[in-house]
Amino acid sequence: QVQLVESGGGLVQAGGSLRLSCTASGSIFVVNTMGWYRQAPGKQRELVASITTGGSTNYGDSVKGRFTISMNNAKNTAYLQMNSLQPEDTAVYYCRAQRPFLDDDYWGRGTQVTVSA
Length: 117
Description:
This protein has about 120 residues and is an all-beta fold. The protein is about 0% helix and about 55% strand. It has no helices and eleven strands. It has strands spanning about 1-5, 10-15, 20-25, 35-40, 45-50, 55-60, 65-70, 75-80, 90-100, 105, 110-115. The strands form two sheets. Strands 2, 4, 5, 6, 9, 10 and 11 form a seven-stranded mixed beta sheet that branches. The radius of gyration is 14 Å and the shape is globular.
C-alpha cells in the first residue's frame, strides 16, 4: 500500500502561482513514477505532468511552459510549480503514484485549485 498526501491548493488570481506537494509513504520502494492529474467539473481527468524517479518528465499540452514538475527522492515528495495560472486551470488536482513492477497505482484525495479571472 502507498499513501499519498497532497497540499498546496487554494484560490489565486489569474496570472498568479501556486505550488502543490505530494508526499508518498508506505510501500514506496518500487514507485517508479509520480504525477499530477486534474479534473474540472463535467470534464474527464487529464494528465497535468508526470516524473519518473530517473527524472524524465511528461506534460499535458495545455500546461507546457507554465508548470514544472519535480521530485525530491529523499523526501518521497513530488512538486508541481504552477505559474501564469488561468481560470481554465481551475480543477481538483490529484497526485498519482505508479508501481509498474507490481502493476498498480495509487491516488491521493485531491486538492482544489481555483483561479479567479
